[in-house]
User: Fold these one by one.
Assistant:
Number 1:
Amino acid sequence: MKYIFLIISAFIFVNAQAQQSDATYLKIHKTYVINEDGSYDYTYTHQLKYHSYISFHRKYGETFVIYDPDYQSVKVQECKTTMRDGKVVKAPDNAFNEVLPRYAEHSGAYNHLRELVITHTGLEQEALVDLTYTIHSDTMPAGFLSGKESLVYSSPVKELKLTFKVPANVELSFEGNKGQKVFNENGDQKVYTFIYNELPANIKFTRAGGEAASVLYFNQGKKLETQLISLMNSELKPDNYDKTFGPVVKENMDEVMRIQRKMVKEMRTIHVPLTFQKLPVPSIKAIQLNNSGTVIEKALLLRKKLWDIKIDANLAFEFPVEQFNEKVSNLENVTNVYVVVPTTSDPILLPVDDIPAANPLFTNYDKVIVALSPDGELQKLVPQNMNYAKLDMFIKVGKDYSEVSYQGIANGIFAGWPGANFETPRRMTNYTKEIEDDIVIESSASIKMNGRFESEHNQYDNLLEVKLPILNAGFNQFIHDQLPKGQPYVVEYGFPLEETYVYSVDNNNDCELIRTPDDFNVKNDFFEIVIRTEKGEKETIITQSVKIKSPVIPAEHYKQLRESMINLGKNTGRTLLFRCNEK
């Protein structure tokens, strides 16, 4: 009886876990076939069980298939719903409708794309939908087969099967999570199969141990640098390139930033996936005339504009670290494109569709950013400066407000974005009004700063509560972002990071300091957090220091990091309490 009870309990638990999701994929099968004539077919099959009202009214009532009719066609082989009582409902003709993909609206060159909207009928709780369709491509736009398959889905997947059928003379390479791999060769055909069982919904994969858990990517054998060169139409440097092309320096920094800001604010970005983009880019002039373009098109235009003012600009491509392999990575692995300009220090990465809070070079702990040299070689871009800030602050308590004087240095993410984010309100917390502010730009990634500002405080009768100001970047992000309980955790900010504040408070005033943050000291190989108060005769010194040494915090240390950040975020973690004399 005891064992029967345990089996029943286990069954109930597993079933309850399944019911927590709105739906469950009983299977997802995807098959790629390269045909002898150079065309290829992609066949998608799924069997989806609906559990909740939300699943068929908001999430999975429709399936969307995007394709390019210039060289592709779609055929739906099966679309049916098996209702709870066993009744089978086949999709009627009016369940299939073609529309323009939303991102292609008003896009000029991409308004020929089509999206087949498949509306599923007969849906109810516990209904089962079987869907199979094939996209036939007359040709492979890049001239070879490449791509990636995500292993993350919005609902649990019982079985995911990825199959690749290619002629015997075709070499296909794979990287990432290969699951259970099966390889067969039968005469004139090779068949690669990858099977994954019991994938949970929206699992947060981490990079602990260097695993590439969230994706499988593949390539028919074209090296990454060759793909990037063809993407840029072989324009690695301008025709008139000579020694007069140079880095960004203080004298031309404002002009570079003005050109970048103008493009971000005035030129529309068309978010068409690279899979459907016309590559290499046919005409930069057309982009300029239409005042719109994809990220890669705008990047090429920005590079041209910087070449016109003799800036040695180049393109840089961003990849998730788990999706970077020089032999197998392809354009589908690219997550962003920048224009990189050299400086006398670290280079600046210029986005073309936003103005970031800091140079993206310093917030790329989980990314690989590569550029192409004029000789067509891949170059990884790695910052030489670290994310570092050291500030001395003197806090003067007043009746209506407190005044903070500060001086120090800031590098990397703390230095802000050249020409855009140097205002005190965007740089400091607990700010109300600037009194004076002076910034010296040492380089693109380093500033010296000093100044004074009025700081907010709260008063309760004769008690005065004063917040200790810190920089908006850095550990302030951890304090305000909810750190998940899951372990291990990939810390989501630039690395390495070191941030130190030394606060001085005058003891000889009308308000007596009666409470300071509790002393705290945690040190290990992955992070250090120190809060220390030293009370002297004339002044009290409070030191707060945070060092994050690694982007991956192991499970045995992560709980301590989380508790430390929660402590810093509490009022007692960054608050001084004064008792003021009543007059």
Number 2:
Amino acid sequence: MSKAFYLNENIDKYLKFMTFVRSSSPLTIKHYTLDLQQAFELDKYSRSPKNSWTEAELLGSVRQAFNHWATLSLASRNRKAATLKSFFSWAFDEGLTERDLSMQIIAPKVPKKLPHFLSVDEALAVLKSFDDEKLEVPLREKVLFLLLYGGGLRISEACNLKWSEVHLSQKVLRVMGKGSKERVVALPSTTIQVLNKWKKDSGFNEFVFGEEVLNQRTAYEMVRKSGQRAGLLKPLHPHALRHSFATHLLSSGANLRTLQELLGHESLQATEKYTHLGIDQLARTMENVHPLGKGK
């Protein structure tokens, strides 16, 4: 007979473990909480009227949940599976279950997609549009673009950026990224110049974009409008600018380790997705390097 598993108490312990030991972000904890609520049909306070569960009941509830999740995207189902695997793995490590129930969770395979990124010409077209006097674009929109494309920041990092983290004389930022991990980001001269002007003109003392954190929806809309003004064919999103930052650095000779540090990736595997190259660049490399190419 399997151990009694006290679901309410153990979910509380797990979320605290992920928050304080693993330093998961508030957004990650929010997703974990939602996934566990759905998997075990908990109320909004993550409570179940039935507190003591057997291992068979836990797995039965999870299987039922996956049936309900069948219409979700592969990526969403994969994330929920990852949450449950993490929860059950933690429970087994803590001696709360006799079997490692995470082994019973099969995550659907998500096909790898090449991240969307701008060409250098497209990035420069967006940058040029900010200086069109006829359009009267607010300077803060240019600042946001340069932090995302010039510094490779995540949208959440840019929205939360404080002036105390900006070291203009050293041309660097100290950014608090995922999992409360700090990293140093070097900025190009153009970004530094615009930040200098923005600091003088805005008069903001704490946060770069105002007296409080910039709303992420507002930031998304600012980026989308930037792409529209420049006449881009596809809608522009903040993460596409981070992808463009990585892609353009890599294609210009930066190595993966350097890129990993700049992007704040915990593993090199997360950075390797940026090793995609344009067909034109591959063709040029072939011509210049291959023994049968014209460059030889």
Number 3:
Amino acid sequence: MLDLVLFAVLVGFTVIAGRLLRDAGPLAHWITGWTSAAAAGFLPLVAAVLPRLQLAAHPFGTLYAALLLTGALLFADRRVPWWWLPAALAFGVLRAFAAAEYGARAGYAIGLACEPFAVAAAAYVTFGTARAAGASIPERLLAPSFALLAIAGALHLGWLTAGRPVERFAPVWLAIAPLAIGVQVYAAGERLRRRTQRALEARVAERTAALAASEERYRAISDLASDFAFGIRIDRSLHLTREWVAGAFARTLGVPPEAIDGRGWMRLVERDSMDALFDEYRRLCAGEPIALERRLVRPDGSHCWVQMRFGEQRVDADGTLHLVGSGRDVTALKHAEAERERLARHVERVQRLESLGILAGGIAHDFNNLLTVIRGSARLALADLAADAPARARVERIATAAEHAAELTAEMLDYAGQSRAALAPRDVSELVRESADLLRASVPGGCRLELELASGLPAVAADASGIRRVLLNLVLNGAEALGPGGGRVVVSTAKADCTREELVDAFGAADVRPGSFVAIEVRDEGRGMDADTAARIFEPFFTTKFSGRGLGMAAVLGIVQSHRGAIRVESAPGRGTRVRVLLPPSEAQAAVAAPRAAVE
């Protein structure tokens, strides 16, 4: 009955120890092993009272050696077979049965054959830790301590196998065990510390890598975005101290953040806006919440529009202004607004010219009907009057005035696009060449007319008289712009390709599609025009001349529009004027051969 109880106790000890040690480290196994060794050493001492209890010393002794080896395997990061401890318990039970059948010396003899070798294996397993880089002294002494324990265990089992008294060998263990336990505890502690440090370093490295990746993503987003944020200080002398800058600052302003330190920020501000900037600085110091929208100058001379908002603004006792805010590049938005305004002005101009054309056409028709009666009556009256009749001179003046009025009406009809035009495929360069004598005879003596005519141009469906009137008006305007000093007026022809963007600024281009055109260009070296004047030159009755009627350029636009063309004007004060008439090529070829290139 006692044997069964002992066996149950051993099995229970092993099961409980196995559950407790399932996920434990080497130190827990070594402490449990030394507990088993203490039990194996204590039980023979009570053999006089309970002789059968001495048999349990054999399984506990075997578990001691097995647990030391298990801890050594874990210390060296080796795999422990799942069957190792159950096999050790079975071996210990086998020793107990041998001792019960053949005496205690038989059990000790069987243990001597195996247990010292298990402890020696622990010394072999941990020997590699002594050679590892950075190994501590306890780790270097671990393998020798196991070797010493293996020798002491072999001597102990040999002592008992020889039948010597148990208590006589106890001083040996009292001398060796504390040293071995101390080495094992310190070595396990060093191992735990090193593992904890490696785990902490790995976690720190992982967090550092995650932080670096996050910063890289933030940097990429900042580089792609058009916004930036900043924190700055500005003292009363307008000396700026940069605290931090983040986002697309450098890409927006074209300078690194450190370039704005001190008074470097003033290099980004246009001179004519410095006074307004000082006023805004005073308002910020007064605590007014304002939003700035300012055009800044980059180092390369280009401009950018930046919108700035301030989330925090405070002033120290010494007058230093602290600002935390954000900036946004709104250059593209400003350009889009300017383009929208330009298109709106263009549409307004087209609508105004169209309205004026309708008005002029209506007036010209009604006036022409009246002139028809006046001119016909004057001719009939002249036919009835004798050559020496007193009233004949008055009637002739009436007829002459009516003819001049008819010419004015024709110009108004030309502007309205209601004049009759005989369109035929013509070579524009040849038309200009045929009109050269008339043009030279019409300009003042100090004006030099030059022709630069291209050959091989596509034919244009043109009314020859209408194109001559266009040339005459443009050349006369260019000659008058030269002033008393004279100069050059150049008439040239060429093939031109125009995009939709280029036609937006053209006059009469509302129904003109982008593509290839035949261009007639008249340029002068005169005084030029400002933008407001150039925008109105084709309005009827608008003129800058004292004696002008303001219908010549209006008629030019009407004639060009009747040819499905457009006109581009480039002029600036003091730089002369260039007027380019764009005519679409005709589908039919010119009836005459393409002339040679001419420069006259």
Number 4:
Amino acid sequence: MRALALVPSLPLWNDLLYEFNASGLVSQVKMLYSEMVLCGVVPNVYSVNLLVHSMCKVGDLGLALGYLRNNTVFDHVTYNTVVWGFCKHGFVDQGFGLLSEMVKKGVCVDSVTCNVVVKGYCQVGLVQYAEWIMDNLVGGGVPLDVVGLNTLVDGYCEAGLMSRALALVEHSRKRGIKPDIVTYNTLVNAFYLQPTVVTWTTLIAAYCKHRGFGEFLSLYEQMIMSGVLPDVVTCSSILYGLCRHGKLTEAALLLREMYKMGLDPNHVSYTTIINALLKSGRIMEAFNHQSQMVVRGISFDIVLCTTMMDGLFKAGKSKEAEEMFQSISKLNLVPNCVTYSALLDGYCKSGNMKEAESLINDIRSKNIYPDVFNYSSLIDGYFKEGNESAALSKVQEMTQKNMQFDVVAYNTLVKGLLRQGKYEPKSVFSRMIEMGLTPDRVTYNSVINTYFIQGKTENAMDLLNEMKSYGVMPNMVTYNILIGGLCKTGVIEKAIDVLNEMLVLGYVPTPIIHKFLLKAYSRSRKADVILQIHKKLVAMGLELDQTVYNTLITVLCKLGMTKIANMVLMEMVTRGFSADIVTYNALICGYCTGSHVEKAFNIYSQMLVDGISPNITTYNTLLGGLSAAGLMSDADKLVSEMKERGLVSNATTYNILVSGHGRVGNKRDSIKLYCEMVTKGFVPTTGTYNVLISDYAKAGKMRQARELLNEMLTRGRIPNSSTYDILICGWCKLSYQPEMDRALKLSYQNEAKKLLREMCEKGHVPSETTLMYISSNFSIPGKKAEAKRLLKVFTQKKNL
């Protein structure tokens, strides 16, 4: 380029300076820099820093310092480089002295500066002085980081002060600096000359709590290779690590291996694995391990009992959880604050608020007073129950006791108020900041979810961007809410964009996201489109399990695509998953949707042969199929079979039966079932009321039909367009009767007109049949067609 009289640009010069410096050709850096200046290219601070770094590397410290002090182009990196150069070559005091010069010139002293000086003093053996310097710099506002921690830990280990190194790690953790792999490796290397089982166990325990799955297992292998055998505490720590990473099968295997190694698992070992099993919903396996404890004579303590009780509540086994609490006194154990908190939270989450209040009174009598966590549980429980006044009374109680809200309590309150529609999403954050609280993911997730419920998609997406701008990154819950909300509003392209963003951040699709997207794509009613998004999600990392296959089969069956659903079932079975109640119910639904009732019953028979007990959904689906086919005698037989199996009819069952009998003209059975239904506290759907009202209308019993309408309104059911069509046509037909009293005829016509007006005001459009009856009833003889046309125009305009 020079031979052609071409002068390289500054970025090209900088690239060359960097490559020469990185390659160790330091002398070439000086020559190249001089050549650049001679060419008239003005160096920037990056060029200067490369030059200074090359000088420091070879020990030209005087030249580097002179260049720094006599040049106007420099920044904090330049100073850090010169400080590094002095420390690297053993002139630590001179390097440290430059810090005061940096402060005078207003150059930032950052964590890099601090770490370089600390490392310099550690290298010359002055570790305690290095720690003193770090404490002073951190006290002056320099942020502490894990690099500085590792430097000091290495210094203390080199000096043989192992206890001080461990104490420093623990102290730093309390200050929010978590040890990393370098920290632990430094400690391992330091202890290498005198390893004991206690040393290894301490390190393994730390790895299990803070590091990845492979890392603590690698450390365990190193321990075995060094000839140190694990003890019960070591294995319990590894059990915790395995459970923390969801490796429950491996954890159970390790528990068995412990016995083979001559180690007897203690209550800590069993509590760890039982807790993990309960949290993952594997109740029977958890109880099996509990039974093993009994057989092996391992005593239960309050921690295990509390863990079991809490896990059972979270798994939806409230009765078993209460029985576990009752067993505490039988074991002569005394419940503690954690036990009572878990019990209270369990009652609140299961909706048993009477027991929750009773428990609060009980623990107060024992001089144990509710804390913020307990109040959060109560507030959440009352909101979920729909008892807003009781929830707010607890908030008032907290205020009267000068109890400060924490983020969890505030999120609970906000979530409840948002769910009730009694809180403006925009005011959530301002109020929170007033209280001195910082919004977290839960806060943002609650408000984003509320925006989606309100149909405010843009607000939800704007809040997502705001959330990220404040450094609060979305988690899996956030992405579930976002993709679910976007799919429900039909914005599938945006949902896919969010899905791609989620993948970039290292998350993989979950079964709930799979469900949202499949339902959204099923609107196309095209099997290939549904299967394509399913395969795409699997390729993105979605784990194929029973739930995923069932979702795909259910979506296909709801569209009547039973042939393709059966192909998916075959694939599912080949992968080792057997059809369960959800699978069978989906296939039965698919065949009933396609009016193949006989095939639906074939699936039902196969289900019984396979030992799967039908549930109420199974029977309701079959009853729906029989009802649609008008086979009500068969439906009655199936109800009898259902009752023999101990299942009780629910609201859906009654709606199907009442409507079915009504449609085939079994008016007596229909009314009888309706009376039975309302007596049991069930409220018929609008569709069921329409069938009953239609029966009365066909028989000309319009007063009874009107009474049924009033009852329907009283029970909170809203009439739809079909309801109005049935009633209007019924009154019109009644007024057609020959030789009817004029006043009576006018009253019938007035009923029809009143209902038509009400129908239009509520935004419903009359059917063609209704328009025909109205026009026939009110038109001048010979003008029926014109009256119908004008009426149609009028009713459509009313609804614009």
